[in-house]
Amino acid sequence: QVQLVESGGGLVQPGGSLRLSCAASGGIFTVRAMGWFRQAPGNQRELVASITSGGSTNYADSVKGRFTISRDNAKRTVYLQMNSLKPEDTAVYSCNLATGGNTYWGQGTQVTVSS
Question: pLDDT (tens digit, 9 = 90+) per residue, 41-52?
Answer without folding.
Answer: 999 999 999 999
